[in-house]
Structures are given as C-alpha cells and as structure tokens.
Amino acid sequence: MMEIEIPAGAAGPADVHHGLHSELGALRGEHPGRARNPVIKVVELGWLEFVKPDLDRAERFARDFGFVVHSRTPDRLSLRGTWSALPCLIIRRGRHARFVGPTFVAESVADVRRLARWAGANALPLQGGLGVQLTDPSGFPVRVVAGMDRLPALAEREPLDLNVGTKPVRLNATQRPPQAAAQVQRLGHVVLETTRFRRTLEWYLEALGLIVSDFLFLDELRDRGPTMAFLRCDLGSVPTDHHTLAMHLGPRVGYVHSAYQVTDLDAVAAGGEHLAAQGYRRVWGIGRHIQGSQIFDYWRDPDRMMVEHYADGDLFDCSLEPGWAPMSASGLAQWGPPVSRDFLGGKPTPGMVSALLKALRDEASEIDKDVLKALAKAMAA
C-alpha cells in the first residue's frame, strides 16, 4: 500500500466536475458508488492466482514482462515486483490456462474474522497471517487476508528527469533509458466481465468496502443503471489508485486483463520494445486512458491472457464522488492508436456464442437483446 500525504483540509465531498474528473455526475437517484456501512474496508489488492499448463513458458514471459521470480517449484511459480510487499502473481500448474481469482488485503486479522462471520465462512491460518475464502455473486473465488509476512523492496531505476516547458531539470546530460525488460513495480488492478453486474457490484461495495471512482453507462439505457464500474480502496484521506478492481457487464463471466505499474513512460515504451523483440504480440497501445489517466500498453502472454504495463495513474482519496460517462470504444483513451478488435474481444468463437446463449437463458443474468444491441453500438462508436 502506497501512502501519500495530502494537504490538511482536503476532506469533504469534492465537486465531481472539478478538474474534469468527469464531465458528468450522477443524476438524482442514481447509484452513490459506495455502501453506507460496509463489513470491512480492504486496503489493497494483494495478488492474483492463475493456472497454466507450462510453468517454464510462463516464467520466460514473466521475466520478459518485468517480474522478478520470488519462488519456483515444479508445480508453483510465485512472482513479485520491485515494490511488492507480497508476491503479486501466483501461477500453479494445471491442464488448462485459466484465471482463478483475486486476493485482497484487509487492515487487520480482526477484519478477516469479521468478514468470515458475516459470510458464514472459516478464517484459516495462511503464511503467517489469516485468510478467508469467499465467492462473489459472479462465481469468482475471492480471498481476503491479513497479517502476512511482508517482503522488502527491491532496487530499481529511478524515474527519468524530464525537461518540461519552461522548467528544465536536466542540463548538460543526455537521456538514455535502458533497452531491456520493464521493471514491474506492483500489481495495480484486475478487470473482470460478468453477466450479473449489479449484484456483484453491490457485493464488493458491502463486503470489501470498495468505492466507485467512475461509472460507465450505455447511452440509450442509462435508466437501467451503470454497466461498468472502476472501484478503488477506501483509505480515507490517503489517496489510492483510481481503480483496484474494474467490472463490466458482458455476455461472459471471466478475466479481462490485469495491470502492472512501471516507473514512467520510458519504461512502458522500452518494455514494449523488449516484448516485441521476444516475439510477443501487442494488443493495444501505447496510449493514455480517460478513466484513471494511465499511460497504457497491452500484451498477450503465451496463454492469450491479456496483461498491461502502465504508468502515471490517477490517485483519489475518499472525498471524490463517482464520475459518470457513456460507454464507447472511442472513450477508452485520450490519445493513442484506435482501440484494436483484439482488445474489444476479437472475432466471435463457438465458446463466446455458447456463453452468450447461456447468458440469455439465465434468469439472473442482466444480458438481454436490448443490452446486447447497446453494447455492440457502444463498442462501434
């Protein structure tokens, strides 16, 4: 968890339009973006867990992407970043590549016990601390832990000094960023797709105390509520990442991508050059997002899982209310190349068609013909 001091007197509701955080705020009666009395408030996203069939191949990509190997056995690979107080990726050997679920960190073991009582689950010892395993309404396994042994930071290069406008800081010196793999600092966020968006959103707000930074809605169906939410940890007056978890309504339930912070734009760009030289495929980038403002670059790993390098993301404290914006493909970036078809989901496959038909038949699903039509229109905009 990164702590940053902010000026005294910054508490209190902030105008959603201030600094153009979002051009739109909520209309009367729309979702407030936070629970009135959450069970606990998690403080960070600890790690993500995956299953992959080839750990040697997974390790090669991980090193090329910029992770450090924390530990390795024949059946388990643990990866960290330079800032990571916990390993940020756990990859276990299995027959088919898949995302297992996220692990969040609670402030204390007392919070883990409180959450376990609320969910009717057992809190169990885990690596020097305590953890509880839950399942969100979409079916994702969600672990919450506290009291874990923490790792020391690793050495990394400093951010580059930039000569900006009338304030040059680099004199009689050149700029030569290393042509090498980026150094991942930490896990930033995970993005999930769900057919049960509203129920799942409410669960994360109530159970884990996450709060919404931005909502996206389908322009013609705003009266049906948001269809995407960018959620951050509530650390009170301490600013935290614009989003730790993002979720959007779609015809499938599953992992979309995960994002990892690097030190600056040159790390994003040089890290991308290194990945391209190793034969990996860029999905989309380099560009700058609107919601979150990150400079981004998306890649596929050898198992076609999408991962993101990013730098320069927004940090919000608890005072900022949710922004609202219409969902559209063109609204995904301030600048950069046009969003790729691969990023938006690629060509339909038999598996995607099967998932869509299942969602349409599921009474608990929020997917119907009107939503599908509006989603298709938004992604073509």
Explain how this protein is built.
The chain is of the alpha+beta class and 381 residues long. It has helices at 55-65, 109-119, 197-208, 265-277, 341-344, 350-361, 369-380, and strands spanning 44-52, 68-73, 76-80, 89-93, 98-105, 123-126, 129-135, 141-146, 186-194, 211-217, 228-232, 240-241, 245-249, 254-261, 281-289, 295-300, 306-311, 315-316, 323-326, 333-335. It has a ten-stranded mixed β-sheet, covered by helices on one side. It has an eight-stranded mixed β-sheet with strand order 2-3-4-1-5-8-7-6, with helices on one face. It has a two-stranded antiparallel ribbon with strand order 12-18. Strand 15 (281-289) and strand 16 (295-300) form a beta hairpin. The longest helix has 13 residues, at 265-277. It is globular and about 60 Å long. The two termini are 37 Å apart. Residues 1-18 have low confidence and may be disordered.
